[in-house]
């Protein structure tokens, strides 16, 4: 079984990357007559902390008590032959993997292994966990600029939480009206649907920008007057 970080309706980059990875790895495994990997979604009832990437290890542990993944219980491991692979994009403090490993083994997992795309020096990560936030903003900053427009218009673009936070953050509200025409309507529809699926419309910080996008999509005949899509978005 493959587990990645928990999510509600909008995936993280890690969720997407490991889904692609597992599907391609399964082809190789099948051709070699090995067991294939089942990608299991860990649900999350509450959205992750907005500034999680800048938190210390102790702060991450505290936050996870209220906003963490829902981990499969013992009936999930009833066959006693379930091997878990946990996939994440980057290793910072390892607190997420540690908690998952403990609970999975306690519930009956046969084994647990973690897999990362990148691993920070543990000492550096311990001293400054906000290094993750620095890496996150290395190429895509906090501004709605042409780099962001190009990203959104990319053929295979999928809304992720970090993108939604960037677009709907109140500090970018002033930039948003001039930014809207730079992105395809079908993309804005996808972003709008994803934001409502993740309850961003209930967050005071995001409400004004979501309303602005909604009005724009109504004007461009992408939504009806009530805010419902006029075209099927896939």
Structure description:
Helices cover 43% and strands 10% of the residues. Strand 1, helix 1 and strand 2 form a beta-alpha-beta unit. It contains ten helices and four strands.
**What is the topology, as strand order, of the major beta sheet?**
2-1-3-4
Helix content: 40-55%
Radius of gyration: 20 Å
Largest sheet: 4 strands, parallel
Task: Name some characteristics of this structure.
alpha/beta, four-stranded parallel beta sheet, single chain, 4 strands, 234 residues
Quick rundown:
This protein is of the alpha/beta class.
How are the SSEs placed, and which strands pair?
Elements lengths: L1 E3 L8 H19 L7 E2 L16 H11 L15 E9 L3 H13 L3 E9 L2 H6 L3 H6 L9 H7 L8 H8 L7 H4 L5 H13 L9 H13 L15
Parallel strand pairs: 1-2, 1-3, 3-4
């Amino acid at each position: 079984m493959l587990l990645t970080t928990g999510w509600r309706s909008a995936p993280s980059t890690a969720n997407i990357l490991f889904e692609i990875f597992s599907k391609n790895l399964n082809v190789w495994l099948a051709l070699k007559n090995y067991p294939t990997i089942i990608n299991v979604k860990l649900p999350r009832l509450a959205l992750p902390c907005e500034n999680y990437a800048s938190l210390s290890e102790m702060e991450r542990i505290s936050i996870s008590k209220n906003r963490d993944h829902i981990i499969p219980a013992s009936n999930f491991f009833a066959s006693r032959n379930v091997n878990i692979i946990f996939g994440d994009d980057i290793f910072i403090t390892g607190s997420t993997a540690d908690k998952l490993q403990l609970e999975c083994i306690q519930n009956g997992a046969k084994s647990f292994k973690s897999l990362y795309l990148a691993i920070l020096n543990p000492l550096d990560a311990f001293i400054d966990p906000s290094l993750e936030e620095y890496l996150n903003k290395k190429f895509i900053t906090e501004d709605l600029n042409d780099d962001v427009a190009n990203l959104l218009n990319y053929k295979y673009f999928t809304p992720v939480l970090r993108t939604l936070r960037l677009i709907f953050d109140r500090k970018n509200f002033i930039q948003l009206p001039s930014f809207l025409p730079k992105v395809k309507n079908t993309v804005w529809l996808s972003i709008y649907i994803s934001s409502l699926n993740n309850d961003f419309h209930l967050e005071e910080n995001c409400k004004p920008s979501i309303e602005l996008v909604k009005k724009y999509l109504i004007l461009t005949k992408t939504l009806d007057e009530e805010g419902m899509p006029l075209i099927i978005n896939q």
